[in-house]
């Protein structure tokens, strides 16, 4: 019945954990689920109020424009200017998305012919590889290893793979690792992409969720990046808006035109009222995100200390909602043991690719008092 493209999807590794979680809940265990990357904090009220008002505007009840309202694209351009000091032409260097996942999933359809390669990191958000495969392409893995600062080793990409590669996906600050990329690395990357005629698709939804005052970069801050790169951005994590489905892709105008062409044949844009509220979100005073960041910073400190105390190997994340801890053995077994002993659910690293094996991802998207409770329970993982 099913097409090969879905029959060939990798097995759902979390099925066993999901089942165990349900069984534990049925037995009355007070499960603390640290496996999801979905902010528990509500969308700030001024954004919700803006949506309510915009929903009354009947011009928003008709089909939206494919590329998004110019006013929304202007707001994205202004946000990039104030956040990263990058100039974007809202007319052709900004495209509205129905969440960044939508744009990422459709992008390979614009550039990949059957047999072409997309370079994808491992471990990684799984959409890069599946979207490449859906387009008939071959994902070629770039391992992200601790000894390389969890950055891909560009020199290790075989010459024939680089020749066949049309696009490269990357994501810093990184899910699931929490690592960030330096300006130096981004510079080398832009040179590499130019030399090998590869389009960089940089996925940057966590840019504002950073810690210890170390702001994260946009790849477009690098001179010449616009010649070779686009960057996906999202309101999901910055403003606790995962349910709203709104994001953008910015940068190289020709690349955006390709993605736009695919999208205009698949979807009909983002609800106008959500775009109006998105404008209000992007224009929020800086304090709005500062407050959100403060809550996460506190949770990161609590969980980081607890994981260190049980002798897991990890670095304090520089950004994102995740702690990435080396548990030394099978991540699937560790996840099962963790649930059994503590009632905590976390994500086995293997779910993000084979180079994620041996690691667990702990998310901080639960109320601070639940994170504190999780920290207390983690003591039971001491052997
Ligand atoms: C690395 C990464 N990219 C993209 C997304 C998708 O975000 P959204 O579609 O909500 O913008 C996520 C969500 O968890 C993510 O972790």
TrEMBL record:
Cofactor field = pyridoxal 5'-phosphate
- Superkingdom of source: Archaea
Q: Which GO terms describe its molecular function?
A: L,L-diaminopimelate aminotransferase activity; pyridoxal phosphate binding
Whether Transferase counts among this entry's keywords is yes
Listed SUPFAM superfamilies = PLP-dependent transferases (SSF53383)
InterPro entries, per this entry? Aminotransferase_I/II_large, DAP-NH2Trfase_DapL_Desulfo, LL-DAP_aminotransferase, NHTrfase_class1_PyrdxlP-BS, PyrdxlP-dep_Trfase, PyrdxlP-dep_Trfase_major, PyrdxlP-dep_Trfase_small
Q: Which UniProt keywords are given for this protein, alphabetically ordered?
A: Aminotransferase, Transferase
Q: What is its EC number?
A: 2.6.1.-
Question: What processes in GO biological process is this protein linked to?
Answer: lysine biosynthetic process via diaminopimelate
Q: Does the keyword Transferase apply?
A: yes
A Pfam cross-reference name: Aminotran_1_2
Q: Where does the Aminotransferase class I/classII large domain lie?
A: 30-378
Family that this chain belongs to: Belongs to the class-I pyridoxal-phosphate-dependent aminotransferase family.
PANTHER family tied to this protein: AMINO ACID AMINOTRANSFERASE, L-GLUTAMINE--4-(METHYLSULFANYL)-2-OXOBUTANOATE AMINOTRANSFERASE
Q: What is this protein called?
A: Aminotransferase
- Provide the species name: Methanothrix soehngenii (strain ATCC 5969 / DSM 3671 / JCM 10134 / NBRC 103675 / OCM 69 / GP-6) (Methanosaeta concilii)
